[in-house]
Records
---
Amino acid sequence: MKKVYLLSAVIFLVLLFLLFWGIKKYGADTIYRGELLSTKKITVNGQNYSVNKYSDNKQSVFILSLRRFLVKKEIILSGFENEVETCGTPVIKDKRLNVLCLKGNVGAHSQTVELVDLDSFTPVKVIDEDGVVTDFFVSDVPDFEYSDGIFYCHYRNYDKNPLTDAIRYSFVLKNGVFIFDKKANITYDGNSISTKGEI
Protein backbone atom coordinates (compact mmCIF):
# COMPACT_ATOMS: atom_id res chain seq x y z
CA MET A 1 0.00 0.00 0.00
CA LYS A 2 2.86 2.34 0.83
CA LYS A 3 4.32 1.69 -2.63
CA VAL A 4 1.06 2.84 -4.25
CA TYR A 5 1.05 6.09 -2.21
CA LEU A 6 4.71 6.66 -2.94
CA LEU A 7 4.19 6.06 -6.67
CA SER A 8 1.15 8.38 -6.66
CA ALA A 9 3.16 11.09 -4.88
CA VAL A 10 6.02 10.76 -7.38
CA ILE A 11 3.62 10.97 -10.34
CA PHE A 12 1.93 14.01 -8.77
CA LEU A 13 5.27 15.77 -8.25
CA VAL A 14 6.38 15.01 -11.83
CA LEU A 15 3.10 16.39 -13.21
CA LEU A 16 3.40 19.46 -10.98
CA PHE A 17 6.96 20.01 -12.19
CA LEU A 18 5.89 19.68 -15.84
CA LEU A 19 3.06 22.15 -15.27
CA PHE A 20 5.35 24.80 -13.77
CA TRP A 21 8.02 24.12 -16.39
CA GLY A 22 5.42 24.61 -19.14
CA ILE A 23 4.19 27.87 -17.61
CA LYS A 24 7.75 29.14 -17.29
CA LYS A 25 8.77 28.10 -20.79
CA TYR A 26 5.64 28.93 -22.76
CA GLY A 27 3.67 31.32 -20.60
CA ALA A 28 6.31 33.62 -19.20
CA ASP A 29 7.47 36.86 -20.70
CA THR A 30 10.43 36.02 -22.90
CA ILE A 31 11.19 39.40 -24.50
CA TYR A 32 12.51 42.44 -22.66
CA ARG A 33 9.78 45.04 -22.57
CA GLY A 34 10.02 48.11 -20.38
CA GLU A 35 6.80 49.90 -19.45
CA LEU A 36 3.57 48.85 -21.15
CA LEU A 37 2.15 51.88 -22.99
CA SER A 38 -0.76 50.41 -24.94
CA THR A 39 -2.50 47.18 -25.90
CA LYS A 40 -4.57 46.51 -29.00
CA LYS A 41 -6.60 43.32 -29.37
CA ILE A 42 -6.93 41.76 -32.80
CA THR A 43 -9.24 38.85 -33.62
CA VAL A 44 -8.65 37.12 -36.94
CA ASN A 45 -10.25 33.83 -38.00
CA GLY A 46 -11.23 33.09 -34.41
CA GLN A 47 -7.71 33.63 -33.04
CA ASN A 48 -7.10 36.39 -30.49
CA TYR A 49 -3.87 38.34 -30.85
CA SER A 50 -2.62 41.33 -28.92
CA VAL A 51 -0.23 44.06 -30.04
CA ASN A 52 1.50 45.56 -27.02
CA LYS A 53 3.62 48.69 -27.15
CA TYR A 54 6.41 48.97 -24.58
CA SER A 55 8.99 51.65 -23.86
CA ASP A 56 12.13 51.71 -21.74
CA ASN A 57 12.64 55.50 -22.14
CA LYS A 58 15.22 54.84 -24.87
CA GLN A 59 13.11 53.14 -27.48
CA SER A 60 9.67 51.69 -28.06
CA VAL A 61 8.92 48.17 -29.19
CA PHE A 62 5.74 46.51 -30.49
CA ILE A 63 5.21 42.85 -29.59
CA LEU A 64 2.60 40.64 -31.25
CA SER A 65 1.35 37.89 -28.91
CA LEU A 66 -0.77 34.81 -29.35
CA ARG A 67 -1.75 32.85 -26.24
CA ARG A 68 -3.38 29.43 -26.19
CA PHE A 69 -3.79 27.93 -22.72
CA LEU A 70 -0.19 27.46 -21.50
CA VAL A 71 1.43 28.23 -24.85
CA LYS A 72 2.37 31.85 -25.55
CA LYS A 73 3.98 32.88 -28.82
CA GLU A 74 5.53 36.32 -29.28
CA ILE A 75 7.44 38.21 -31.92
CA ILE A 76 8.86 41.71 -32.04
CA LEU A 77 7.35 43.75 -34.88
CA SER A 78 9.73 45.88 -36.93
CA GLY A 79 9.49 49.25 -38.62
CA PHE A 80 6.57 50.71 -36.66
CA GLU A 81 6.51 54.05 -34.82
CA ASN A 82 3.23 54.94 -33.10
CA GLU A 83 0.59 52.44 -34.13
CA VAL A 84 -0.04 48.98 -35.54
CA GLU A 85 -3.30 47.84 -37.09
CA THR A 86 -4.48 45.17 -39.49
CA CYS A 87 -4.40 45.85 -43.21
CA GLY A 88 -7.62 46.23 -45.21
CA THR A 89 -7.35 42.50 -45.85
CA PRO A 90 -6.16 41.20 -42.44
CA VAL A 91 -5.21 37.73 -43.68
CA ILE A 92 -3.63 37.00 -47.04
CA LYS A 93 -4.14 33.33 -47.78
CA ASP A 94 -3.54 31.47 -51.00
CA LYS A 95 -1.51 28.43 -52.06
CA ARG A 96 1.71 30.32 -51.30
CA LEU A 97 0.88 32.35 -48.18
CA ASN A 98 -1.06 32.28 -44.94
CA VAL A 99 -0.13 35.56 -43.28
CA LEU A 100 -1.46 38.21 -40.94
CA CYS A 101 -1.01 41.63 -42.57
CA LEU A 102 -0.15 44.49 -40.19
CA LYS A 103 0.43 48.13 -41.08
CA GLY A 104 1.31 51.41 -39.41
CA ASN A 105 2.06 55.00 -40.35
CA VAL A 106 5.67 56.14 -40.18
CA GLY A 107 7.10 59.59 -40.82
CA ALA A 108 5.06 62.29 -42.53
CA HIS A 109 3.25 60.20 -45.16
CA SER A 110 4.81 56.72 -45.28
CA GLN A 111 3.51 53.40 -44.14
CA THR A 112 5.06 50.10 -43.07
CA VAL A 113 3.56 46.67 -43.74
CA GLU A 114 4.73 43.53 -41.96
CA LEU A 115 3.49 40.06 -42.85
CA VAL A 116 3.44 37.44 -40.09
CA ASP A 117 3.32 33.79 -41.14
CA LEU A 118 0.42 32.29 -39.20
CA ASP A 119 1.76 28.74 -39.45
CA SER A 120 5.23 29.44 -37.99
CA PHE A 121 4.34 32.72 -36.21
CA THR A 122 7.40 34.45 -37.67
CA PRO A 123 7.79 37.56 -39.83
CA VAL A 124 8.05 36.97 -43.57
CA LYS A 125 11.49 38.22 -44.65
CA VAL A 126 11.92 40.85 -47.37
CA ILE A 127 15.10 41.32 -49.43
CA ASP A 128 15.22 44.79 -50.96
CA GLU A 129 16.87 46.10 -54.13
CA ASP A 130 20.25 46.43 -52.37
CA GLY A 131 20.11 42.93 -50.86
CA VAL A 132 19.23 44.20 -47.36
CA VAL A 133 17.05 41.76 -45.37
CA THR A 134 14.18 43.25 -43.33
CA ASP A 135 10.88 42.12 -41.83
CA PHE A 136 8.72 44.74 -43.55
CA PHE A 137 7.80 46.71 -46.66
CA VAL A 138 7.67 50.51 -46.80
CA SER A 139 5.76 52.83 -49.13
CA ASP A 140 5.71 56.61 -49.08
CA VAL A 141 2.65 56.95 -51.34
CA PRO A 142 1.50 54.87 -49.34
CA ASP A 143 0.13 52.06 -51.49
CA PHE A 144 0.63 48.28 -51.36
CA GLU A 145 -0.80 45.40 -53.36
CA TYR A 146 -0.49 41.63 -53.28
CA SER A 147 -1.34 39.41 -56.23
CA ASP A 148 -0.43 35.79 -56.92
CA GLY A 149 2.91 35.66 -55.12
CA ILE A 150 3.99 39.22 -55.89
CA PHE A 151 3.95 42.11 -53.40
CA TYR A 152 3.98 45.64 -54.82
CA CYS A 153 5.12 48.80 -53.00
CA HIS A 154 4.79 52.27 -54.47
CA TYR A 155 7.23 55.13 -53.86
CA ARG A 156 6.77 58.73 -54.93
CA ASN A 157 8.76 59.69 -58.00
CA TYR A 158 10.38 63.00 -57.09
CA ASP A 159 12.03 63.22 -60.51
CA LYS A 160 8.54 63.76 -61.93
CA ASN A 161 5.34 64.85 -60.17
CA PRO A 162 5.34 63.10 -56.75
CA LEU A 163 1.59 63.62 -56.41
CA THR A 164 0.74 61.58 -59.50
CA ASP A 165 3.90 59.71 -60.47
CA ALA A 166 5.39 56.82 -58.56
CA ILE A 167 7.79 53.91 -58.86
CA ARG A 168 6.28 50.45 -58.38
CA TYR A 169 8.66 47.97 -56.73
CA SER A 170 7.82 44.29 -57.26
CA PHE A 171 8.86 41.62 -54.75
CA VAL A 172 8.46 37.97 -55.77
CA LEU A 173 7.83 35.27 -53.16
CA LYS A 174 10.50 32.56 -53.36
CA ASN A 175 10.93 29.89 -50.65
CA GLY A 176 8.92 31.94 -48.15
CA VAL A 177 10.92 35.16 -48.72
CA PHE A 178 9.89 38.22 -50.76
CA ILE A 179 12.82 39.13 -53.03
CA PHE A 180 13.07 42.36 -55.02
CA ASP A 181 12.37 41.61 -58.68
CA LYS A 182 11.93 44.83 -60.68
CA LYS A 183 10.63 48.38 -60.63
CA ALA A 184 8.51 50.36 -63.07
CA ASN A 185 7.27 53.94 -63.50
CA ILE A 186 3.54 54.32 -62.87
CA THR A 187 1.08 57.20 -62.94
CA TYR A 188 -2.00 57.59 -60.76
CA ASP A 189 -5.05 58.82 -62.65
CA GLY A 190 -7.94 59.03 -60.20
CA ASN A 191 -8.42 55.47 -58.96
CA SER A 192 -6.55 53.74 -61.78
CA ILE A 193 -2.84 53.16 -62.32
CA SER A 194 -1.07 53.11 -65.65
CA THR A 195 2.31 51.43 -65.92
CA LYS A 196 4.93 53.11 -68.09
CA GLY A 197 7.50 50.36 -68.36
CA GLU A 198 10.36 48.99 -66.32
CA ILE A 199 13.15 51.24 -65.08
---
Amino acid sequence: MKFYVPLVLWLLCCFPLSALAGDGHPETFIGPGCPFEGCTYQSWTVAKDTIVYEKPSQNSKALGTLKKGTKVEGKYGEVHSIAAPFLLDKDYRKDKAGETIWLYTYYGLGFFDYWSKGKFKLGSFGLSPYGGLRCTLGDCVGALLEKPKFTWWAKVSKKQGLQGWANGFDFTDQDGFGEYDVQGWSY
Protein backbone atom coordinates (compact mmCIF):
# COMPACT_ATOMS: atom_id res chain seq x y z
CA MET A 1 0.00 0.00 0.00
CA LYS A 2 2.82 2.41 0.85
CA PHE A 3 4.26 1.80 -2.64
CA TYR A 4 1.02 2.72 -4.43
CA VAL A 5 0.46 6.15 -2.84
CA PRO A 6 3.78 7.65 -4.06
CA LEU A 7 3.29 6.03 -7.46
CA VAL A 8 -0.20 7.50 -7.87
CA LEU A 9 1.00 10.91 -6.67
CA TRP A 10 3.92 10.80 -9.11
CA LEU A 11 1.58 9.89 -12.01
CA LEU A 12 -0.85 12.68 -11.14
CA CYS A 13 1.95 15.20 -10.72
CA CYS A 14 4.28 14.33 -13.54
CA PHE A 15 2.25 12.74 -16.34
CA PRO A 16 0.06 15.19 -18.31
CA LEU A 17 -3.07 13.09 -18.66
CA SER A 18 -5.05 16.06 -19.96
CA ALA A 19 -2.63 16.41 -22.89
CA LEU A 20 -3.63 13.09 -24.41
CA ALA A 21 -6.96 12.36 -26.04
CA GLY A 22 -8.64 8.96 -25.83
CA ASP A 23 -6.68 7.32 -28.65
CA GLY A 24 -3.31 8.67 -27.53
CA HIS A 25 -2.94 11.71 -29.81
CA PRO A 26 -2.05 14.98 -28.09
CA GLU A 27 -5.00 17.31 -27.91
CA THR A 28 -2.84 20.38 -28.48
CA PHE A 29 0.48 21.09 -30.20
CA ILE A 30 2.73 24.15 -30.42
CA GLY A 31 4.51 24.41 -33.75
CA PRO A 32 7.04 27.00 -34.83
CA GLY A 33 6.58 29.61 -37.52
CA CYS A 34 3.62 30.87 -39.48
CA PRO A 35 0.27 29.34 -40.46
CA PHE A 36 0.36 30.07 -44.20
CA GLU A 37 2.70 29.97 -47.19
CA GLY A 38 4.76 33.06 -47.87
CA CYS A 39 4.59 34.25 -44.28
CA THR A 40 7.56 36.41 -43.41
CA TYR A 41 8.74 37.95 -40.18
CA GLN A 42 9.69 41.50 -41.09
CA SER A 43 8.29 45.02 -40.70
CA TRP A 44 4.54 44.73 -40.09
CA THR A 45 1.74 47.27 -39.61
CA VAL A 46 -0.78 46.95 -36.78
CA ALA A 47 -4.20 46.49 -38.43
CA LYS A 48 -6.27 47.10 -35.29
CA ASP A 49 -5.48 48.04 -31.71
CA THR A 50 -3.71 44.97 -30.36
CA ILE A 51 -2.76 43.89 -26.84
CA VAL A 52 0.83 42.72 -26.35
CA TYR A 53 1.38 40.00 -23.74
CA GLU A 54 4.42 38.86 -21.78
CA LYS A 55 3.99 35.25 -22.97
CA PRO A 56 2.07 33.67 -25.88
CA SER A 57 -1.16 33.41 -23.89
CA GLN A 58 -4.08 35.74 -23.17
CA ASN A 59 -3.76 34.58 -19.57
CA SER A 60 -0.31 36.14 -19.23
CA LYS A 61 0.45 39.70 -18.18
CA ALA A 62 -0.64 42.40 -20.65
CA LEU A 63 2.33 44.68 -21.36
CA GLY A 64 0.57 47.35 -23.39
CA THR A 65 -1.45 48.05 -26.52
CA LEU A 66 -0.18 48.67 -30.02
CA LYS A 67 -2.32 51.24 -31.84
CA LYS A 68 -3.64 50.73 -35.36
CA GLY A 69 -1.13 51.94 -37.95
CA THR A 70 1.94 51.43 -35.73
CA LYS A 71 4.97 49.82 -37.39
CA VAL A 72 6.48 46.84 -35.56
CA GLU A 73 9.05 44.20 -36.29
CA GLY A 74 7.66 40.66 -36.48
CA LYS A 75 10.42 38.48 -34.97
CA TYR A 76 9.15 34.87 -34.90
CA GLY A 77 6.07 32.96 -33.85
CA GLU A 78 4.26 29.92 -32.55
CA VAL A 79 1.10 28.28 -33.78
CA HIS A 80 -0.96 26.73 -30.96
CA SER A 81 -3.14 24.05 -32.58
CA ILE A 82 -5.96 21.82 -31.39
CA ALA A 83 -6.08 18.38 -33.01
CA ALA A 84 -8.40 18.19 -36.05
CA PRO A 85 -9.50 14.69 -37.11
CA PHE A 86 -8.77 13.78 -40.72
CA LEU A 87 -10.34 10.63 -42.21
CA LEU A 88 -8.22 9.00 -44.91
CA ASP A 89 -10.07 8.07 -48.12
CA LYS A 90 -7.00 6.29 -49.49
CA ASP A 91 -3.71 4.95 -48.20
CA TYR A 92 -1.20 7.63 -47.24
CA ARG A 93 2.34 6.56 -46.46
CA LYS A 94 1.95 3.90 -43.74
CA ASP A 95 -1.64 4.84 -42.89
CA LYS A 96 -4.55 2.99 -44.45
CA ALA A 97 -7.81 4.21 -45.96
CA GLY A 98 -10.49 4.41 -43.27
CA GLU A 99 -8.04 5.40 -40.51
CA THR A 100 -8.20 8.74 -38.72
CA ILE A 101 -5.07 10.82 -38.30
CA TRP A 102 -4.84 14.19 -36.52
CA LEU A 103 -3.82 17.45 -38.19
CA TYR A 104 -2.18 20.30 -36.26
CA THR A 105 -0.02 23.22 -37.44
CA TYR A 106 -0.58 24.34 -41.04
CA TYR A 107 2.52 25.61 -42.87
CA GLY A 108 1.09 26.34 -46.31
CA LEU A 109 0.65 24.58 -49.66
CA GLY A 110 -1.28 21.77 -47.98
CA PHE A 111 1.44 20.87 -45.45
CA PHE A 112 0.55 20.14 -41.83
CA ASP A 113 2.14 18.63 -38.78
CA TYR A 114 0.13 15.50 -38.13
CA TRP A 115 -0.07 12.67 -35.59
CA SER A 116 -0.13 9.07 -36.70
CA LYS A 117 0.82 5.81 -35.05
CA GLY A 118 2.25 7.49 -31.97
CA LYS A 119 4.43 10.09 -33.74
CA PHE A 120 4.36 13.61 -35.13
CA LYS A 121 5.10 13.81 -38.84
CA LEU A 122 4.96 16.38 -41.65
CA GLY A 123 2.71 15.68 -44.62
CA SER A 124 0.77 17.23 -47.48
CA PHE A 125 -2.98 16.65 -47.60
CA GLY A 126 -4.15 18.84 -50.49
CA LEU A 127 -6.12 21.25 -48.34
CA SER A 128 -5.84 24.51 -46.47
CA PRO A 129 -7.63 25.45 -43.24
CA TYR A 130 -8.66 28.64 -45.04
CA GLY A 131 -10.57 26.61 -47.62
CA GLY A 132 -12.89 24.98 -45.11
CA LEU A 133 -13.26 21.22 -44.82
CA ARG A 134 -12.79 20.41 -48.50
CA CYS A 135 -9.71 19.67 -50.53
CA THR A 136 -8.57 22.74 -52.45
CA LEU A 137 -4.91 22.31 -53.30
CA GLY A 138 -4.55 19.13 -55.33
CA ASP A 139 -4.54 15.42 -54.69
CA CYS A 140 -6.81 14.69 -51.74
CA VAL A 141 -6.18 11.70 -49.54
CA GLY A 142 -9.10 12.27 -47.19
CA ALA A 143 -11.35 14.81 -45.51
CA LEU A 144 -11.32 16.94 -42.39
CA LEU A 145 -14.08 15.97 -39.98
CA GLU A 146 -13.82 19.27 -38.07
CA LYS A 147 -12.48 22.71 -38.93
CA PRO A 148 -8.92 23.17 -37.62
CA LYS A 149 -8.58 25.49 -34.63
CA PHE A 150 -5.39 27.35 -33.88
CA THR A 151 -3.98 30.59 -32.53
CA TRP A 152 -0.98 32.27 -34.09
CA TRP A 153 1.20 34.06 -31.55
CA ALA A 154 3.85 36.39 -32.96
CA LYS A 155 6.74 37.93 -31.04
CA VAL A 156 6.76 41.60 -32.02
CA SER A 157 8.76 44.66 -31.02
CA LYS A 158 8.29 48.38 -31.46
CA LYS A 159 11.25 50.75 -31.84
CA GLN A 160 10.18 52.64 -28.71
CA GLY A 161 10.69 49.49 -26.65
CA LEU A 162 7.39 47.61 -26.29
CA GLN A 163 8.12 43.97 -26.98
CA GLY A 164 6.02 40.86 -26.43
CA TRP A 165 3.51 38.42 -27.92
CA ALA A 166 0.39 39.32 -29.91
CA ASN A 167 -2.16 37.64 -32.16
CA GLY A 168 -0.34 37.26 -35.49
CA PHE A 169 -3.54 37.87 -37.44
CA ASP A 170 -3.78 41.45 -36.09
CA PHE A 171 -1.11 42.77 -38.52
CA THR A 172 -0.62 43.37 -42.24
CA ASP A 173 2.47 43.10 -44.47
CA GLN A 174 3.20 39.50 -43.45
CA ASP A 175 2.84 37.80 -46.81
CA GLY A 176 6.12 37.70 -48.72
CA PHE A 177 4.21 36.77 -51.89
CA GLY A 178 1.88 39.76 -51.59
CA GLU A 179 -1.15 37.51 -52.20
CA TYR A 180 -2.95 37.54 -48.87
CA ASP A 181 -4.21 40.04 -46.37
CA VAL A 182 -4.45 37.81 -43.33
CA GLN A 183 -5.68 40.52 -40.99
CA GLY A 184 -8.82 39.33 -39.31
CA TRP A 185 -8.28 35.63 -40.00
CA SER A 186 -8.86 33.56 -36.90
CA TYR A 187 -8.90 29.83 -36.53
